[in-house]
UniProtKB/TrEMBL annotation:
Keyword Disulfide bond set for record: no
Biological role stated in the UniProt entry: Phosphorylation of dTMP to form dTDP in both de novo and salvage pathways of dTTP synthesis.
GO molecular function: dTMP kinase activity
Domain Thymidylate kinase-like: from-to ranges: 5-201
InterPro entries in UniProt: P-loop_NTPase, Thymidylate_kin-like_dom, Thymidylate_kin_CS, Thymidylate_kinase
Keyword Transcription: no
Protein name per UniProt: Thymidylate kinase
Coiled coil: none
Catalytic activity: dTMP + ATP = dTDP + ADP
Stored NCBIfam families: DTMP_kinase
Pfam families xrefs: Thymidylate_kin (PF02223)
Encoding gene (name): tmk
Lineage: Bacteria, Pseudomonadati, Chlorobiota, Chlorobiia, Chlorobiales
Record family assignment: Belongs to the thymidylate kinase family.
Organism this protein belongs to: Prosthecochloris ethylica
Protein residues bound to ATP: 7-14
């Protein structure tokens, strides 16, 4: 079973990936958790290239590097693991590319869909949990994490860049459109719920789906 988590920065993806992984571990189910980009020798090298702050890469170049890293991960790691019957949990997959590059940066959605389809070699998640959080709530979460006052001043919002909020608003709209267009695999969850409640819902959904999932 192939499960992915999506959502804007700070929505709670890694928290839920950890909880779900622990659940499978306590049940002695073989589980593999991965992050993108990375996970193979070549993908880790691509990760270094992508995360180097000073490289002057074009948006197209960046899109293709992400895709190259994803193709390696899918063919070398994810598909072989699924073939052995393991559960694979991925913190972000191609929906992030569509939401961030497509909707956020306004790159051509048609091209992105084609590249996503090549990079994933046609592999589609069985379940995608989209943790829905408004950019404003994400910002509040970030501030409270740093123990800054919750009622932040407008000038502090300026520092966090208004344009950043517009970008994340587009990303969120993208995710909502994706979820609506592929309801067979997307589950949209209100990320403002407690981590425990979210984990409860996610566990229930995964177990129900595992019971009805066809053999690969
Ligand atoms: N349901 C929740 N309610 C409130 N706070 C949460 C919840 N889930 C996670 N958090 C907190 O919000 C912060 C971000 O969570 P997390 O790292 O899981 O998000 P993320 O989606 O993986 O973010 P990123 O995209 O930046 O990796 C952490 O401080 C975490 O403890
Ligand atoms: Mg994370």
């Amino acid at each position: 079973m192939f499960i992915t988590f999506e959502g804007i920065d700070g929505a709670g993806k890694s928290t839920q990936v950890r909880k779900l992984r622990n659940l499978f571990l306590t049940r002695e189910t073989e589980v593999l958790t991965l992050r993108e980009p990375g996970g193979t020798d070549i993908s880790e090298k691509i990760r270094e290239l992508l995360l180097e702050g000073d490289s002057d890469i074009t948006p197209t170049g960046e899109l293709l590097l992400f895709a190259a890293s994803r193709a390696e991960l899918v063919q070398r790691v994810i598909t072989p693991a699924l073939d052995t019957g393991a559960i694979v949990i991925l913190d972000r997959f191609y929906d992030s590319t569509t939401a961030y590059q497509g909707y956020g940066r306004k790159m051509d959605l048609d091209i992105i869909h084609r590249i996503n389809s090549i990079a994933s070699c046609g592999l589609e998640p069985d379940l995608t949990f989209y943790l829905d959080l408004s950019p404003e709530d994400a910002l509040i979460r970030k501030f409270s994490e740093k123990s800054l006052p919750l009622a932040f001043e407008p000038e502090e919002l300026d520092r966090m860049e208004r344009s950043g909020l517009d970008f994340y608003t587009r990303v969120r709209e993208g995710y909502l459109e994706l979820a609506a267009s592929e309801p067979h695999r997307f589950r949209t969850l209100d990320a403002l719920q407690s981590p425990e409640e979210l984990h409860r819902i996610i566990t229930e959904t995964v177990l129900a789906s595992a019971g009805s999932a066809p053999e690969r």
